[in-house]
Amino acid sequence: VSFSFFPPLFSVFPWFGLDIGGTLVKLVYFEPKDITAEEEDEEVENLKNIRKYLTSNVAYGSTGIRDVHLELRDLTLCGRKGNLHFIRFPTHDMPAFIHMGSQKHFSSLHTTLCATGGGAYKFEQDFRTMSDLQLRKLDELDCLIKGVLYIDSIGFNGHSECYYFENPTDTERCQKLPFNLENPYPLLLVNIGSGVSILAVYSKENYKWVTGTSLGGGTFFGLCCLLTGCSTFEEAMEMASHGDSTKVDKLVRDIYGGDYERFGLPGWAVASSFGNMMSKEKRESVSKEDLAKATLITITNNIGSIARMCALNENINRVVFVGNFLRINTISMKLLAYALDYWSKGQLKALFLEHEGYFGAVGALLELL
Amino acid sequence: MRIHLHTDEAGPGAGLALKMAERGGRGSSGHGSLDKSITLPPDEIFRNLENAKRFAIDIGGSLTKLAYYSTVQHKVARVRSFDHSGKDIENEPLYEISVQEEITARLHFIKFENTYIETCLDFIKDHLVNTETKVIKATGGGAYKFKDLIEKKLGLKVDKEDVMTCLIKGCNFVLRNIPHEVFAYQKDSDTEFRFQTNHPNIFPYLLVNIGSGVSIVKVESEDKFEWIGGSSIGGGTFWGLGALLTKTKKFDELLQLASKGQHTNVDMLVKDVYGGACQTLGLSGNLIASSFGKSTTADKEFSKEDMAKSLLHMISNDIGQLACLYAKLHNLDKIYFGGFFIRGHPVTMRTITFSINFFSKGEVQALFLRHEGYLGAIGAFLKGAEQDNPNQYSWGENYAGSSGLMSTSPDVHPMQRTRSGTFDMFEMDRLERPLVNLPLLKDPSAYIPDTVDLTDDAMARKYWLTCFEEALDGVAKRAAASQPDSIDAPERAEKFRQKYWNKLQTLRQQPFAYGTLTVRSLLDTREHCLNEFNFPDPYSKVKQKENGIALKCFQSVIESLDSLGWEERQFALVKGLLAGNVFDWGAKAVSDVLECEPQFGFEEAKSKLQERPWLEDSYNQWLQRLKEGPPHKCALIFADNSGIDIILGVFPFVRELLSRGTEVILACNSGPALNDVTYSESLIVAERIAAMDPVIQSALRDEKLLLVQTGSSSPCLDLSRLDKGLAVLVRERKTDLVIIEGMGRAIHTNYYAALKCESLKLAVIKNSWLADRLGGKIFSVIFKYEVPCK
User: Where is coiled-coil annotated (chain A) (predicted)?
Assistant: First the structure.
């Protein structure tokens, strides 16, 4: 399915899709590359400035970042050729963003700003009063699914958008391989943002919200801040990658000396997350890195566990994990792949998408067109 | 052994409070300082240790549970018929009463802090006489750690048992044997505890054990269970992560912090993400979108209380969600929760219950167990006692020897929350005979014996507790008087008085301590306390005398009945049954009359009865049934009092039924309770009546009249716990009529009991408060004839 086959119902540039989550704002921007000379002449100054500002920088202010590695090049969208850019910034900078919109007289462009996520509701009033912008609010889950299906269909600059880990239970031989999601249904879609939403998708229009959990990316990051004093997700991830969670967690082997055969539990399985921290001595002997890693493992295992139970209850064997919790987070992805494979005895497959947390924003953009 | 004890009766078993309670200081049950320290009276904690065998121990992270089986010597009253041949019957008592020693089996469980383990082992070593014990069954995470210590101290071989197997064995055992074991927890209710009726079939169920981690086990039968899943986010996570976040070391303190915190300061709620739009979108803004989602900053300080609360919510919700997912996958709707995370803590029971309700949309019920902390020890014990076949017997909770459930509110009864230094006890008596449901119950799973739930009904609770308090002196006096030859009877009677008084005070504060509080449980607790101090049958002599007097009147009563026309006779028989029921030492009003008017006779009793129409009156329907319907095949009669009631009320009625061609099963209590007729007394009475009356004689000979025991020693009647032999007989004889008489059996219990066959419930209300409540006066008559709707 390519959207380029649609009749060119031109929407006025700029083409934005906005997803305002609890922690992060995701912005996708379509940069037209097929602008004719006449168009360029007609293009208002404002629009040109926005285009230049967004495409010539990789960072905006102190917190905005363009994920250059995710950029989709030479895309045809609604008959226009161009590049799709992926930008994110923290939700607490929304006021600054709205302020910028007002300073740059964004409203004079007469464009519709399509937005999804809870923030589309929360900040709607501010957009209107501060920058005279009318948001078009879109359903989060609709956008998410539209975005996933669209990006997967166009691929990632000639590569596969979807991938999996082969031999997830074998650390030596574990490797990332492309996965063909041509026939995607049914699938369980697990979106890990600040919290987690789990959807069962049976077709493009037919999906349902299965459950959600409040133990998500926000929990990992929030607990890391409290436990280690870190202040960015990157910092938390960096610490986690150097930590040893087995110092913090109580493993099955810590209790039973090895496997607990009565229940078929392997010795390496975590029996109690943070269980060792009940002891004062052990609390004093762990590092911040160990704590960050344990937090990551705890949250990840729990999501894996809930996702697995939902897959079983819904009778679905493909589980697609998305969301910004997985950004720069191979540890969690591999662990999810491993956990799903191990506990389902190979019945369930964990799949991942390159554009992790941007699908809602992509879906919002598609609604514009 | 010197151990800190909290001062409340509810904690370390009744005996301790005995030492603590201010002498004569009624009503002030030790609300003084929290930290009293006394020297422990050894016989109060490790009771009956001399005869103990089959030890089992369950050592958890902080608490040790010790179990042992022991035999208890009890005094029991025995009645034995005299050999009357050639003797002057007129001047001899009807039968002989002797007090004998009987040995019964009892299970003892004691729970204490691991800190005391060494002291306790020493104590056991010093007091253990029995030497045939060679091994001790051990379970729990700490069993390994203390293995050497136990082996060294006790000289017993430690035999380790699997934790989960023990837990489930114990769980099955309490579910089957202990009434009101299971409860649901209700947050915003006067009675937080909703005790559940024991379901005849306990399987299948889901057990979610929240220790340091979470185990989810599906139990399908006695021996079949399966670990279906688990989670590493459990009590250890709360404790470990909580300690890191708040620098608070103790689990209980963390819970205290949590109960004071505001999680909304730390958690990102749906309304934090969506703003004010939640309402228009139909979203519940207060739901947690991301646990700890607001702490994603290094610049802000968060309060310990708020963080602890947020953590508690996070963990409880997560466990509840997973438990619901597993329950759904396995199609189960009952989940029992256990483990140290739960262990009676109201905060965690509340959050888990909330979570289960939320995630299952009310389809799954979160249930908790009164003796949850003992399950492992019970299971380990059962493992070691397999050769005694403990599962073949029925067991009953001994209210006298059990501490009962702790108070729930940390703020209301702080002294009870100081868990450290407390000894908690639980005792179960092995019952002589296995107990089963009455096969005639319409819906055994919906049957609730008790008419009024005193945990719910505060007015009624106050009244009855006061009533039992006021009657207590008299009961103690009578108990002492019943053993005139015993030197220590007054002292034991006083001990009984104190113990029961303390139990009543506990129940005033914690009505839920032993399950749903009912008049029955109050009566049963009193019987247990009397037995505890070797007053097995304070009314034996009274009963003996009354039976003698009544027997002398039997023939003239029969003659006058026989002289009546059929319809008149039916009414006279019913009045006789009711009049006999006025004689009841259990009700204070009547005992007053009887104490001062010993000549108060059968005829006078009849004249006291309310005139028709009675307060509840379906006599006309009953008469019509007798007139027009075919004779009943077999009637089951639950008899009430000794003396006039059984002899001049019940037996003439039985005789009439027999004459109609109806077989009769006459069920009397196995053990004594108040002046209720016991099975052994009924045998003698029947024998003596048979000698006078050919109808009774031939019915006994031809087995048309059968005397059976109920299996109970209660003045009330629980139709879900009846002697198995009775149940078999009821089925065999195709019983189609059940007659229940007396206030205890037909009003306090079974007033609303629905049966599959016709039933007759009759009683005289001998308590003015109860009469008032039911809209009548004292000596109002209840005559309830019910026919099950087809």
Answer: none
